[in-house]
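User: Assemble these into one structure.

Assistant: Restating your components, then the assembled model:
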Amino acid sequence: MHEMSLAEGIRSIVESAARDGGFSRVTRVVLEIGALSAVEKDALRFCFDAVMRGTVAGGAVVEMIDLPGAGLCVQCGRNVPIAARYDACPACGSYRVQPTAGMEMRVRELEVE
Amino acid sequence: MCSVCGCGEVQFRPVADGARAQSATVGWRPAAVTANAAPVAELPLDFGSGPARAHAPGLSQGQMVRIEQDILGYNDRLASANRAWLAARGIFALNLVSSPGSGKTTLLCRTIRALADECPVTVVEGDQQTEFDAERIRASGARALQINTGKGCHLDAQMVGRALPILAPADDSLLLIENVGNLVCPAAFDLGEAHKVVILSVTEGEDKPLKYPDMFAAADLMLLNKVDLLPHLSFDVDKAEAFARRVNPALQIIRVSATTGEGFEPWLAWVRLGLERATVGATRPTGLTRMAGG
Ligand SMILES: Nc1nc2c(ncn2[C@@H]2O[C@H](COP(=O)(O)OP(=O)(O)OP(=O)(O)O)[C@@H](O)[C@H]2O)c(=O)[nH]1
Ligand SMILES: [Mg+2]
Ligand SMILES: [Zn+2]
Ligand SMILES: [Zn+2]
Ligand SMILES: [Zn+2]
């Protein structure tokens, strides 16, 4: 989904962090991507490279940390791991699972010079 | 398929009602895109083998800085500003999302006509190209502002934020935002609306909610449109609704036909309830003066 928009969002976060911190170069950008966020990681990598060209993070490595999905099962009340939004509760089979984690799309840290 | 999203030239076309029709076009390239355009000439010719490419974790002298920021945080902040702007005026805003051709504009036109004597309605129309939909809306009696997103495949909070003062909806009115026909991106971009309303038409297949779960998860109401065609199709309504509720157990569903008007009473009742709540809950600061225009 919309990886180019995400890459542009990352660029503005990185550029303002570099400005605020007085960094001359950003060599690595570490992202946290939740399992339920529907991000196409290959597409994001591609867009990231294109969008960062000519910026303080041009040529930077992008690293993505996967965060697991989890949800609260309305049926059995358990907190359960899920891999997608429409997954059934692994404990009781109900589809009434409200996602509680795994929607993250965050810039976690930067390696800077 | 989304490699172009968000980077097109965006145009605003305010369209006033009736004879007052003015058609100003504001070309707008998002700042981020312009900012990136300049340095291209200075690019080294060797793409992808710069010093950072050779980086091996642990071997670098670079310093790690923790920043923890949401990638869509900027859009979310602008959406909150839009939400506050709307709340201050008691305006009830809906973001209508669907795949192309599921009937958003037809549904809006009928809704506008049905509410004509009750409350003012304004419309933000998002399409990649053309002003056709805004013209259809205008013909049904509402003021509409067309946003052409160019290559962009969704509306974002910044576009809507710019549209609001131009459109200047009346206090305690209904604002309908027709998003670009796309079941993917618009799910992630909050515009500041009270609710996302997803429209699924019976010609699209029962499995759409499972194929595009994010959109059905983000919506509060699903309108199952074109039910007048059901006798001619093998569409399984119960199955489609079960799939939608599997993704979003709290989803409300109303079956409608935008061409025959079937199901419009419960849909209009849902809108009226939202209008009432927006009016009662309005955060109207005393002495608030409305933006000029409209
Ligand atoms: N039979 C039937 N046709 C409908 C209904 N609603 C819309 N249509 C038809 O579906 C086609 C597309 O309708 P639009 O209202 O333009 O759809 P849209 O979602 O606004 O399309 P885009 O803006 O292009 O994404 C038109 O030919 C409409 O007449 C309905 O309830 N029943
Ligand atoms: Mg339309
Ligand atoms: Zn997209
Ligand atoms: Zn369970
Ligand atoms: Zn998009």
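Chain A has a mean pLDDT of 94.
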